[in-house]
UniProtKB/TrEMBL annotation, chain A:
InterPro entries membership: Elongator_complex_protein_4, P-loop_NTPase
Recorded GO CC terms: cytoplasm; elongator holoenzyme complex; nucleus
Gene Ontology annotations of biological process type: tRNA wobble uridine modification
Pathway, per record: tRNA modification; 5-methoxycarbonylmethyl-2-thiouridine-tRNA biosynthesis
Lipoprotein in keyword set: no
Organism of this sequence: Citrus sinensis
Pfam families per the UniProt record, alphabetical: PAXNEB
tRNA processing keyword on record: yes
Protein name, entry field: Elongator complex protein 4
UniProtKB/TrEMBL annotation, chain B:
Superkingdom in the source lineage: Eukaryota
Protein's cellular compartments: Cytoplasm; Nucleus
Pathway(s) annotated for this protein in UniProt: tRNA modification; 5-methoxycarbonylmethyl-2-thiouridine-tRNA biosynthesis
Keyword tRNA processing assigned: yes
InterPro entries given in the database record: Elp5 (IPR019519), P-loop_NTPase (IPR027417)
GO biological process, one term: tRNA modification
Protein name from the UniProt record: Elongator complex protein 5
C-alpha cells in the first residue's frame, strides 16, 4: 500500500506488519470498528497490521473494501493516522486499474524493493533491464530466457543475476548441465569500483557541453543515473558489474550457495527436491524481513542431460516450480535453448513464464547492419522482451520498445540500449524504409527546424 | 575460409574455455563432407607435425573407414608415417564395433595400421569410449600440460548405437576436458531428424555445411537442359561456415568447392556475401525513435 500523507503526522514508510492470523472478514469488521472509534477521537488510538499474505495476494479486494471507508496506512508501530486529508492529496490504489506505477519507498531488506500492487522486486543485476521491466524481477515470479544456439548471451544475464544476489547476501541455488557447476562461480563478475562510477560521471559531465542532440531521447535517461550515483547507502539495489574482475571468493564461500549438476540425473526428481527444499526456506508466510532467494537453472533442456527428451516431465517440473515459487520470497530464472525443443513444447514453456526474454546473436562484420543501426560496432547481441511479469494486477506493461541491443562497454560493463537507426546518408536521398519523422526528410541541404 | 577453420582448430581453446568444435555436415545432394573431413584432418596433421599447433597429438575415432584408409591418406598427402605413433592414434570403431569377431581381428588390418590403432569393441558404451579416447590422447602427449585433438569420423554412425543424449554427453565432455585442444566431426544431416542436427550445432563452435552447387537442379529429372547443371553438382559444391566468435557474434563465410582426384579445392566466392547477410539479418522489427 502506498504511504499516505496525513494532516498530523509525517509520512512514514510502509512495511508489512506482523500477522495476526485472522480471516479477512474479521479484519474488515475490526478495522471498520477501529476507524469508527478513531473518527470519534481526534487523535489516533489504534493500529492494525495486516498479514503480508493478505496484502500481497489480494490487496485490491481488501483495499477496495477498506478504502471505501478510508485509505490505510500501515506501520510497524501501534499508531494509526487519520488519512481523510490524504484522500485529497494522494491517489491511493483503489482498484486494479490504477496506473500509478511509481515505486514505493524501499523495504528494510537489502536488495529488495517494494513495488506497486504489493509486489517486491529484486534486481536482475542489470540496471537497464530493471528499468525496462518496471523495477526488476518480482519475488514469486518465474523468469525464462530463451537462448540462441549461436551465442552465449544468456550466460551474461545469468552471471549478473547470480552476482547481484551474492553481493546482497541472498541465498542462491544454481543448477547446470556442466560437469563442474561450482566452477561457474569463478566466472561471476564483481561490482565495479566506485572510482569507475565517478570517472563516468565526470566524463558525462564534460560531454554535455559538446553533445549534439541527435536522437535526444537516448540521452534523456542519463540524467537519472547522475542522481542515483550520489546515494549514500552502502548497498545499492542494483550494482554495476565488471566482467573483467571476478567476484571475490568470500561472497560465495560465506553465503549459502548450492550448486547442482543436472547432466547425470535420470530425471528431474533430484532437482525438484533441491528447489523444493530451497524454496521452503523462503516461504512468504511469516512476513519477517527474510532474505530473498534466487534460483538459477542454466540450459534446462541441454542435450547432454538424460531428461532432455522427456518433454512432459520437463513441463511438469516447470509447472510445479512455478507453483512453489509463487508463495515464496524467491525468483527463479531458467534459460533454455528453444531450438532443441519441439515447437509445441516451446510454446508451452513460453506460456509458463511470467517474464519471458530471449537473446539473439548478430552477424559479424555485416556492412548492411552497420549502415542500418547506430552503435553496431559495440553490439554483441540482441535482447527481446516478450513478456513482463505482472503480479497482482490486470494492467499490462506496454513497452516502448521490445528489442534492445546488448553492449559490453569497454568489454566490461553490460548495457542494454534501444535500437536506433543510423544517420541516413543524405546524398542518397532515401531512407531505409522505416517510419519516423527524422528519417522522413530525404533531401540533404540546410537543416530545417 | 577452410583454412580459417583449420587455423581455429590449430590454435585451440584458451585456458578455462571449452575446446573449439567443428561440425562438418553434408547431405545426399552434395556428399562431399568426407572430403572436407579429410582435408581438415590432413591440415591439422601438418600443423601438429610442424609444431605450430596447440595440440601435440591427434586421436582419430574411425567409424566409417578402416585405420588403413587413414594411413594411406596420410601417406598420399606426404605425411611421414614412420614417426606417426608419436602424434597420431586411431581408435578403430570400424572393424568390430559390437565385438562379434574376436577371432578375425588379426587378419583384417595391415601391420602399419595396427601399430597406430587400437580396437573399440563396444561402441554402445560411450562412457568406455570416452575413457579410451582420453587414455589414448594422454598416451600421445605424456604427463605434461600438453593437449591433443580429436577427430570423429562420423557421429552419424555413433548415434546408430547410442542415444542422442549420450552422444551429446560424450561430445560435450570431450569439449570441456582440460587436455582437449580441439575436436571435429562429420555428420550426414539427411540421415537424422532435425533435432539431432540442431543438437550438434548447439554443441559446436563452428558449423560447416556442404551444399549443392546448383540448388535448383537437385532432385529434378535428367534432361538435356539441366544435364550440365547436374554434372556440376557431381564435382562442385558450396561451403558455408558459421563461426561462433568469442564476442558472441556469428561470422558467416562462403566458398566454392571443387572435388578432384587429388583432393578438394576451395575457392572464394565474391558475390554471395550480400545474399548471405540478407538472410542473416535478425528478424526484429526496428522501431525508429525520432
Amino acid at each position: 500500500m502506498k504511504a499516505a500523507q496525513t494532516p498530523h503526522k509525517k509520512e512514514v514508510p510502509c512495511v508489512f506488519g506482523r500477522p495476526p492470523q485472522l480471516p479477512i472478514t474479521k479484519i474488515i469488521r475490526l478495522s471498520a470498528a477501529l476507524l469508527a472509534r478513531h473518527r470519534r477521537c481526534s487523535t489516533p488510538t489504534a493500529a492494525l497490521s495486516l498479514p503480508p499474505r493478505v496484502c500481497s495476494l489480494r490487496p485490491e479486494s481488501l483495499s477496495c473494501r477498506l478504502s471505501t471507508i478510508y485509505s490505510w496506512h500501515f506501520t510497524g508501530k501501534t499508531k494509526l493516522c487519520s488519512v481523510d486529508a490524504a484522500m485529497a492529496t494522494t491517489k491511493p490504489r483503489l482498484s486494479s486499474f490504477s496506473r500509478n506505477l511509481s515505486a514505493v519507498s524501499s523495504s528494510q531488506t537489502p536488495g529488495v524493493k517494494c513495488g506497486p500492487n504489493g509486489t517486491m522486486f529484486v534486481s536482475s543485476g542489470i540496471a537497464d533491464l530493471d528499468k525496462i521491466l518496471g523495477g526488476g524481477f518480482p519475488l514469486g515470479s518465474l523468469v525464462m530466457v530463451m537462448e540462441d544456439a549461436e551465442a552465449p548471451h544468456h550466460m551474461l544475464l545469468l552471471r549478473n543475476f547470480m552476482s547481484q544476489g551474492l553481493v546482497h547476501g541472498q541465498p542462491l541455488l544454481y543448477a547446470s548441465p556442466s560437469k563442474d557447476p561450482r566452477g561457474f562461480l569463478g566466472t561471476l563478475p564483481s561490482p565495479a569500483s566506485l572510482k569507475h562510477d565517478k570517472s563516468r560521471d565526470r566524463e558525462s559531465e564534460q560531454e554535455k557541453g559538446l553533445r549534439i542532440a541527435w536522437q535526444y531521447k537516448k540521452y534523456m535517461g542519463e540524467n537519472q543515473p547522475n542522481f542515483d550515483s550520489h546515494r549514500d547507502n552502502k548497498q545499492d539495489y542494483c550494482n554495476e558489474f565488471d566482467f573483467r574482475k571476478p567476484l571475490e571468493r568470500h561472497y560465495f564461500t560465506r553465503q549459502r550457495v548450492n550448486c547442482v549438476g543436472i547432466q547425470h540425473s535420470k530425471n528431474l526428481a533430484a532437482l525438484q527436491e533441491h528447489c523444493a527444499s530451497f524454496l521452503a526456506q523462503h516461504q512468504r508466510n511469516d512476513g519477517s524481513s527474510a532474505l530473498a532467494g534466487r534460483i538459477a537453472i542454466q540450459s534446462l533442456c541441454a542435450p547432454q542431460c538424460e531428461h532432455s527428451n522427456m518433454d512432459w516431465e520437463m513441463l511438469s517440473f516447470i509447472k510445479s516450480l512455478k507453483g512453489m515459487v509463487r508463495s515464496s520470497n524467491a525468483v527463479v530464472v531458467i534459460t533454455f535453448p528453444p531450438s532443441l525443443l519441439s515447437l509445441s513444447s516451446t510454446k508451452r514453456w513460453q506460456h509458463m513464464a511470467d517474464t519471458l526474454l530471449s537473446v539473439a546473436a548478430i552477424p559479424d562484420e555485416d556492412k548492411e547492419l552497420a549502415k542500418l543501426l547506430s552503435g553496431y560496432q559495440d553490439m554483441v547481441g540482441l535482447l527481446n522482451v516478450h513478456k513482463v511479469a505482472r503480479l497482482n494486477t490486470q494492467v499490462p506493461l506496454i513497452l516502448e520498445a521490445t528489442t534492445f541491443s546488448i553492449k559490453l562497454q569497454k568489454r566490461r560493463f553490460l548495457v542494454l540500449e534501444c535500437l536506433n537507426q543510423a544517420p541516413v546518408d543524405g546524398s542518397s536521398g532515401s531512407s531505409y524504409g522505416t517510419s519516423g519523422s527524422c528519417s522522413g526528410s530525404s533531401k540533404a541541404g540546410t537543416l530545417d527546424f | 575460409m577452410a583454412d580459417t577453420i583449420c587455423r581455429t582448430l590449430r590454435d585451440g581453446g584458451l585456458e578455462g574455455e571449452h575446446a573449439p568444435a567443428l561440425t562438418i555436415k553434408d547431405s545426399k545432394a552434395s556428399p562431399f563432407g568426407f572430403d572436407v573431413f579429410n582435408y581438415v584432418l590432413t591440415q591439422l596433421s601438418n600443423y601438429i607435425l610442424a609444431g605450430k599447433s596447440q595440440s601435440r597429438g591427434l586421436v582419430v575415432v574411425a567409424y566409417s573407414r578402416s585405420p588403413s584408409f587413414y594411413v594411406d591418406l596420410l601417406k598420399r598427402r606426404g605425411i611421414d608415417i614412420a614417426s606417426s605413433h608419436d602424434w597420431i592414434h586411431i581408435l578403430d570403431c570400424y572393424t568390430d564395433p559390437l565385438g562379434w569377431k574376436n577371432w578375425l581381428i588379426d587378419k583384417d588390418i595391415s601391420q602399419e595400421a595396427s601399430s597406430l590403432s587400437s580396437f573399440c569393441q563396444d561402441v554402445r558404451n560411450l562412457d568406455k569410449l570416452y575413457s579410451l579416447i582420453i587414455e589414448q590422447g594422454k598416451g600421445l602427449i605424456g604427463q605434461g600440460k600438453d593437449r591433443f585433438s580429436i577427430a570423429i569420423d562420423s557421429v552419424s554412425e555413433m548415434v546408430r548405437h547410442a542415444s542422442i543424449s549420450s552422444v551429446a554427453g560424450i561430445l560435450s565432455n570431450l569439449r570441456s576436458h582440460d587436455q582437449v585442444s580441439s575436436i571435429f566431426w562429420l555428420l550426414h544431416s539427411d540421415l537424422h531428424e532435425i533435432k539431432f542436427t540442431s543438437v550438434l550445432e548447439y554443441l559446436s563452435s563452428m558449423v560447416a555445411s556442404v551444399e549443392p552447387f546448383n540448388q535448383a537442379a537437385f532432385g529434378q529429372r535428367v534432361d538435356l537442359e539441366n544435364l550440365s547443371m547436374l554434372e556440376q553438382n557431381f564435382r562442385k559444391g558450396k561451403f558455408h561456415v558459421r563461426f561462433k566468435r568469442r564476442n558472441g557474434r556469428v561470422r558467416v563465410m562462403c566458398e566454392e568447392i571443387l572435388v578432384e582426384l587429388a583432393g578438394i579445392k576451395f575457392t572464394p566466392v565474391l558475390s554471395e556475401d550480400e545474399i548471405i547477410n540478407q538472410r542473416l539479418l535478425p528478424k526484429v522489427s526496428i522501431i525508429v525513435l525520432s
